Amino acid sequence: MSMISLYTAFSALQAAQAGTDTASNNVANAGTAGYTRQRVELATRSTYQSPIGPIGTGVDVIDVSRARDRFADRRVWANSEVAGRFSAMSGLLGTMDEMTMEPEGGITGALGNLWASFEQLALDPPDTAARLDTIAAMNALTARIRDLAGSWSAQVDRAGVELGDTVGEVNTLLRDLGPLNVQILDTGTAGTPNDLLDSRDRILDRLTELAGVAVTDNGDGTVRVSLNGLALVDGNTVHQIAVDGSYAFTDDSGNPLRPGGALAGYAEFLTADAPALMSGLDTFAADLADAINAAHAAGVTPSGTPGGPLLTYTPGAAASTIAVAVTDPSQIAAASDPGPPVPAFDGTNAEAIAALRDAAVALSGTTTIDGAFRQVVTDVGSRARLAASNAESSQNLLRTAQNIRESRQGVSLDEEMADLIRYQRSYEAAARVMTAVDQLLDTLVNRTGLVGR
Amino acid sequence: MRITHRWQFNEAIRRMGAGQSAMADAQRRLATGKAFDRPSADPIGMSQAMELRSALRVKEQAATNAADGEMWVNVADAKLQTVSERLQRAKELAVTGASFASATEQQAIAIEVAEIRDQLVEIANAQHQGRRIFGGFGAGAPVTNVAGTWTFTGDTGAVMRRIDDDETVQVNVTADDVFGFNAGNDIFTVLDDFETAALAGDQAAMGAAIADIDAALERNLGALARLGSAGRRIDAAQDRFLDEINTLRSQLTQIEDVDISEAVMDLKLRESAYQTTLAVFARSAQASLVDFLR
Question: Is B294 an 8 Å CB contact of chain A?
Answer without folding.
Answer: no
